[in-house]
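Researcher: Quick one. two chains, 714 residues in total.
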Amino acid sequence: MAVDPITFSIIRHRLYRVVDEAVITLKHVSGSAITNEGHDLMVSLYRADGSLLMGGVGFLHHLTSAAEACKAIIRRFDGRINEGDVFLLNDPYTAALHTSDIYLVAPVHHDGRLVAWSACFVHVYDIGAKNPGGFCPDAEDIYTEGFSSPGVRLVNQGELDQDVLDTLLNMVRSPEMVALDMRSMIACNNVARERMVALIEKYGYDTVDEACGQLIEQSEQLLRSRLRELPNGTWESRQYLEVLDEVYKVNLRMTKQDDKLVFDFTGSSPQSKYSVNCTKWASLGGLFAPLFPLICYDITWNEGCIKPITMIAPEGSIVNCIRPAPVSVATVGAIQSVNNAACTTIGKMLQTSEKYVKEATSVWHANHFAIFKFGRSQRGGESIGIFTETFAGSGGARTYADGVDVGGEIPNPISRMANVETVENNFPIRYLFRRRMQDSGGPGKYRGGTGMEFAVVQHDSPDGGLHYVVSGKGANFPMSEGLAGGYPGAPNSYIWVHNNETTGDGTNIDVRDCLNIEDMPGKKQAVTWGVFPLMDDDALYVRWNGGGGFGDPLDRDAQAVADDVRGSVVSPEAARTVYGVVLTEAGAGTNAGVSVDVDQDATETLRRSMRASRISVAAAE
Amino acid sequence: MSAPFSGSLHIVEGKTGRQMACKGCDQPLAPVGKPWKPASTVRERPMEGAGGRAYASASHVVLRRFFCPGCGALLDTETAMAGDPYLNDVIDA
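Model:
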């Protein structure tokens, strides 16, 4: 019997709130910046069979993978799942994305009956991989990527199994922080379980179970109905990712027929010897990360959204690798390329509909940079931590507006970065600058949001500095694709500034006085993959990609370009050569704080000339 | 009467049926159901520096630009390596 609409709506909203409260709990207990500041986390609810019931916020590519984790635990512990249990799973070839994103999944029982699951993850402080922090550029295979479990009981009927926890903690760096990560997830699951039981106590099992079934059915029908409103067709996209001297491709052909979508990754590169690969569960999650917010923005994210979708990922490819291929960099490697490729094809499809054109977007922040710094802190303890700037992102341009500068990313709607002061308080480093990166947003009628740039030096370190693990890609390949003529956002850059040399005249320029990379003395070395020092007077400079643009840059409002130049977001040179905007004399060659204006006549003449030259015979020669 | 296809292209009724056409000048490019890019004016330039100094390191790829042969409007872009096929977006006829 169908649940009445009012009760159905109340239960649906209670499920949202259960997830929200569990997320708050997770953050309150965790002491890790990657969780609290970066929001590299996820909490969701699942049906008794492990299917997704209520997808929560955080990294969305985990929603389907955690469902697979629940199903794997159900298979492994069939008949031995008890009230109050919590299970741990982090094997990427079973369900997880990479070993350092540990799933804790907990059954929810009512009157002795298994009625649901809650699941969460955090990127734990360390997982005992070859490199500190979990991302492991030096890994040759999964065996060098740290502790990995296809499923183990961590809490037995409400009692923590200390032997299991100690076994994990014995294999990781900074075990006290990993212990806190584990306890934050146990607390999170406890809250989710208590609230679910309270919900069932209030409305009765049959009513809640029926409402949950209806909710999944509702999502499926709404998504299928939406797909039927869009034209049938195929849309293609392509992503490159490079590691050192190797280049890999992720090819996607998305086909929409009636009320179904097929994502076909045929033609993608064979799996890599480097840890940028991902497993099929990770690829599935990767394509859902943009699909949920872009197509299902007003539909509950659950199993009903998954049913109309099919994925084809060739076995042995970079998007469906075979054990024991290394995968520790997957989340910023192949998974993110799958995110980007799917965002592009979905955006292209949505453009074909007057009703949904405003939901289309160019690619946001296509290129995470995982840089984990590690070493002794100014207080003497060991510290490991990611530069959370990687979560700051950049918005892709929409069909009606610019992308948001430093606007986050599609796969994680709540991502953010830590304050400079927070980082400096916890690590022996000092920021020289951190700001929006000029010209990084993809040009277009609507500009992609900018990324940023920053530089750091060691400061007050007891060891003269520290080291960092960088799993960087995208320095040679822009990855935030544009739409409808918009350019891709700028690529990333990672520079080690060697500053131990005296200048030719015997005087040293103090790198700490430099406010941009160009002024920094010493040799500049691109670093993208491996472990490097940040010692003495050296500096690390990082910049990250802007979002993709939308439309022809020559169609951009010239006044908007002038505004961008005033704000140092676009250079005067790019204003002229890319946007065809001629600025007044005062503005030419200047930057922030200078009054600039548009020379309308000269701009119209220049733009007319640029359009003509695009299709002239001479240009083809 | 036209239907949208993208921010730069739309679908118009032509003498030979429904056509993909430039949104700016209605230049027809291909029948609906067929790839339109071969009918455009294609230009490739190094990605390096394409959007300003932040693109300085993009040395391995080109920016492929597809222009309307009628009015010079930029219809689409691709990040590509030499020899990569065009990315084709097609809705069913």
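The mean pLDDT of chain B is 95.
Researcher: Thanks, that's what I needed.
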